[in-house]
Amino acid sequence: MIAPQFQPVGDSGVMIRFGDEITDEIHAGVLAMDQAITAAELPGVRELVPSFTGLLVVYDPLETEYQTLIRAISGLSARSGDAREAREWCLPTCYEGDFAPDLQAVCDQTGLSSDAVINAHTSASYKLFMYGFAPGYGYLGGTPESIQLPRKTAPVRDIPKGAVMIAGPQCIVTTMVMPTGWWVIGRTDFEVFQPFEDNPFPVAVGDTIRFQRVSADDFMKGQKS
């Protein structure tokens, strides 16, 4: 992993970049720096936003300045602090009928049966690398190569909340009705985004997710309970 590089973002942000590839090693550096800055409680720091390869530090320019913050962060760069223990989440997911409108298309393009596609998807462990695009829209890495497909050539409107989607090596669970060019292969009723809770994002960056196959009957029973 290369040494972190610092870039100004407007008049109240610092982008710390750890590389230009999506790898576990680079992302570990992002999370370690996130933990170190959080633990240090640096004056003026207001928000930390981790991504695939970098960490955005948002600060109050009335309390600190760019160069001062860079020097303080540089002193932390060699120390990772105590890393937060990642959690693993299990999301019950239905891969049947209208809950999986693109499953057959994925089968057609990969040459796999529907069971093979589902088994591949449920056998993997997905790491949450970052949030972006929409509230609770978590980008998960870990989709098996056997079911990786490029995005659709045109987006589809009105994809419902809870849609489980794949594109390339990534997977996402939608948190609201939205258009998407990703392949919808299932539906979960797990609330990835919980706006009325103290912590609206229960799945933290660095946590892992597994998808558990459930029948349509069991899925509907869960929604009614």
Automatic annotation (TrEMBL):
Keywords: ATP-binding, Hydrolase, Nucleotide-binding. Its EC number is 3.5.2.9. InterPro entries: CT_C_D, Cyclophilin-like_dom_sf, PxpB. SUPFAM superfamilies: Cyclophilin-like, PH0987 N-terminal domain-like. It holds the Pfam family CT_C_D. One of its GO terms (molecular function) is 5-oxoprolinase (ATP-hydrolyzing) activity. Residues 4-203 form the Carboxyltransferase domain. PANTHER family: 5-OXOPROLINASE SUBUNIT B. This is 5-oxoprolinase subunit PxpB. It comes from Halocynthiibacter styelae. The lineage of its organism: Bacteria, Pseudomonadati, Pseudomonadota, Alphaproteobacteria, Rhodobacterales.
